[in-house]
Amino acid sequence: MVALASLKLEHLAASFIVDASHFFQMEPSWEWPNLTSLVITSKLLTPNENSVEIGSMLQTAAAAAIKMPQLETMEIWNGQKGLAALFKYHAFRDIKQAIITWRGTWELTMEPSTIQAWEAVVNQYGGWRLDLVQERLDKAAIKSHGDAIYYLMLSNQVIRPISLQQIQIEQKAREGVKTV
User: What residue stretches are annotated with the DUF6546 domain (predicted)?
Assistant: First the structure.
């Protein structure tokens, strides 16, 4: 339902509302002609999950991205205590380049088929370059989903800065850390 409702949107941030693996199970005719940014979570993004299933979901996301001709940013993430993971596609139209970033508390090795699926996204624009970036985070620093949002450097559409501060303050209070 969320995917169907998003077909006419320019921006969608639906963290913890719908899982990416469900969102990308779309009808073949669906297109998002106006969508420029998508932020969504996935329970698959954990180090214990089967990497083939993660790769399959990321390939399905690439198939959806092909139907999003204005897409500039897609963020698929997950976060909780001790866990943070982000797959980010970012298109830079002015320099004809896209970057796929994996940022997380564990290393994800992307299968060649996953990379090829995302190359197909940039190839539709002709002459674009696709770069891959991997960044490792310290899982000890991730005390809550609020810390995950902060360390993953998610777009501002995920949460307002004041709400993020409140989550972090509440987490410190639970841990017995005094805040000023």
Answer: 2-160
